[in-house]
Amino acid sequence: MGQSQMEQHVVVMRHGERRDNVEPLWAARASRRWDPPLTDDGKAYAFKEGRHFLGRYNFSINRVIVSPFLRCLQTANEVVSALRAVDYDPTAMLSSSDVTIDPSKIKVSVEYGLCEMMNSIAIRPEMAPKDGDFGFDVSRCEASLPAGTIDHSTQMVYNELPKWEETVTEARTRYIRVIKALADKYPSENLLLVTHGEGVGTAFSSFKQGCVVYDLDYCGTVHAKRDIFLGQNQSFTAAGDLSYVGHSGILFNEAISN
Fold first, then answer.
1. Starting at the edge strand that comes first in sequence, how are the strands of the sheet with 191-195 ordered?
2. Measured between alpha carbons, how far is 187 from 236 in angstroms, rounded to an integer?
């Protein structure tokens, strides 16, 4: 008996529109200034993008893994609700609060390694917590995600946040490492990874080598895949690295070689 072949798909997605970019005074009265939520429009657009997944991709998302930042958690909540919604009007403008979901066929978990770049380039020093404690508690994070979907058995690749003032190079290396590790950890599942702009841009440049991202929309995505083989002992083996399939909401230049 030989091996059977299948494909693993990985979609890396940026969070939706963040509130502090629309309401400049939001941070002045916020207790967690480094962790803004989505705007209402951001939630609605993330839900809409989740519905678009159903027509854009010819595969199902089995697992969603998300940065602990609130804007990513809320984005994941909207997308999962759209993917697993039941008994709703597909022509209406909806968000997660308007639908009932079937949580039985999708798993969701938090991953510290998908977090924002932990430096003053991504998080202004005056917005960062003075004591260095960003206050990300896994149970609190999970409370922002759809009930019944949480996989409590999963182990994070990064068990704690990266140290403050990691360099851009260190952050990009982290994103690539965690994306590869998550794909390898769940080879039989199609993954949606909800992260930040730098994470999506880094993934795009890795999958589509020779390209440099210069702009990235909220909820922008990059899609990659690889062949997976199922052996006689029911073990999964990956055939090579993830390769680029497509993208949405990403503007880039081809690198010029001398």
1. 107-110, 63-66, 191-195, 4-14, 211-230, 236-254
2. 6
pLDDT tens, 19-42? 999 998 999 999 999 999 999 999
221, 195 contact by CB (below 8 A): no
- Three-state DSSP class for 178? helix
DSSP H helical segments within the chain, as ranges? 40-56, 70-83, 138-142, 168-185, 197-207
pLDDT digit string, tens, across residues 128-156? 999 989 999 999 999 999 999 999 999 99
Separation of alpha carbons 209 and 168, rounded Å:
18
Q: Retrieve residue 157's tokens.
A: 């690749």
pTM of the model: 0.95
pLDDT greater than 80 at residue 62: yes
Evaluate whether 58 touches 11 at the Cβ level (below 8 Å): no
86, 166 in Cβ contact below 8 A? no
Residues paired with 7 in a beta bridge: 227
Contacts of 189 (CB under 8 A, 6+ apart): 8, 62, 63
Question: Three-state DSSP class for 55?
Answer: helix
148: left (phi over 0), alpha (psi -120 to 50) or beta: left
Is the predicted pLDDT of residue 54 greater than 50, yes or no? yes
User: 225 — alpha (psi -120 to 50), left (phi > 0) or beta?
Assistant: beta
CA-wise closest residue to 41 among 66, 56, 25, 23: 23
Mean pLDDT, residues 166-185: 97
The one-character DSSP state at 107 is: E
